[in-house]
Design goal:
The protein is of the alpha+beta class. It has one domain: Ubiquitin Conjugating Enzyme, CATH 3.10.110. The strands form 2 sheets. The chain has a 4-stranded antiparallel sheet with strand order 1-2-3-4. A hairpin with a 2-residue loop joins β1 and β2.
Length: 158
């Protein structure tokens, strides 16, 4: 996806794009943050997920799957491409070709999350993550901005 501007989009601009592109999501701007909640069903044969996206200019969006809770195949097994708290990891933050604050959340994060949920469902069935990406030691990168070191390469709409 081509970048709209050379500057960061404000939370109000992101809000306007979400209303236009993802009208099923309910969004609000509160204390300088954009908070959007909605439902994503990656394909007709998959589960529907209640999701939440929070964003503040200057930080990476944070993505949460609220219900149903993400499940592990085995109690000790980590869900692939997640951060602490089982938050989906959608992109590699230092690489601005993936995500930057100049990009539209409704055209990047939302479709990437739908794709992540699709690969998550495949992983639940097969035990293999088919979405590609990098698997660093997440414990070393907890919410530092580099904790997004897992990505879905070549599948992100650019």
């Amino acid at each position: 996806m081509a970048e709209r501007n050379r500057r960061s989009l404000s939370v109000h601009e992101q809000y306007a794009y979400m209303r236009q592109i993802c009208p099923g999501f309910k969004c609000k701007v509160q204390n300088g943050s954009l908070i959007c909640v909605g439902t994503i069903q990656p394909f007709p044969f998959t589960e529907s997920y209640a999701v939440r996206i929070t964003y503040r200019v200057g930080a990476s969006p944070k993505i949460y799957v609220d219900t149903p809770a993400l499940r592990r195949r085995e109690p000790s097994e980590r869900i692939p491409h997640t951060y602490e708290g089982d938050r989906p990891c959608l992109f590699f933050p230092p690489d601005e070709s993936e995500w930057s604050s100049r990009k539209v959340i409704a055209q990047t994060i939302v479709p990437w999350l739908a794709m992540w949920l699709f690969y998550y469902e495949i992983w639940l069935s097969t035990g293999e993550w088919q979405g590609g990406g990098t698997h660093p030691n997440v414990d070393d990168k907890k919410d530092s901005g580099l904790e997004h070191a897992e990505q879905l390469p070549d599948q992100n709409p650019r």
